[in-house]
Amino acid sequence: MQLSYGMIFSIILIIVFVFFAFYAIRTFLRINDSTKISDFVNSFQGDIDDLWKGSQGNQKVSYSLPSNAKQVCFEDRGDGNLLLYGADKERVENVPIFQIEHIDLEKILGTKKEVCFDVVSDKVNMYIEKKYGEDTVLVKKS
Q1: pLDDT per residue over 33-92, tens digit each?
Q2: Interior CA angle at 45 toward 127 and 54, to 5°?
Q3: Which are the contacts of 86, defined by CB distance < 8 A and separation ≥ 6?
Q4: How far apart are CA 88 and CA 69, in angstroms?
Q5: Global pTM?
Q6: Sign of CA dihedral 119, 123, 124, 126
Q7: Residue-range domain boundaries for the chain
């Protein structure tokens, strides 16, 4: 059985097109994940800021995250205080440590090194609260 050069070239082109199609889909999915993480951080900081500007209040909040994020954790780090972890407590790839302003990290952590919120069905639920006379917002499990 002999294949002509045209047939071999066509098969190679099909393989190349399939490869680039999968590459493009993977790239779009990564962009979608980055967008979800950015939306989460911006929305969370916005909700914290809104509560911080008021005299008191509380609110249950829920945010969407990509499926590779399994936990949202608060830790006392020099370069930030909010981290996203995936499976096996590994940091989510290519996601920086975020700095959330106007939160009372000492009260959130208490005596613990970190406090984590589980991501269930690609959503994380938290409870944010500011008591009268306090300068910062507290983040708790809902």
Answers
A1: 889 999 999 999 999 999 999 999 999 999 999 999 999 999 999 889 999 999 888 998
A2: 70
A3: 68, 69, 70, 92, 93
A4: 11
A5: 0.82
A6: negative
A7: 5-140
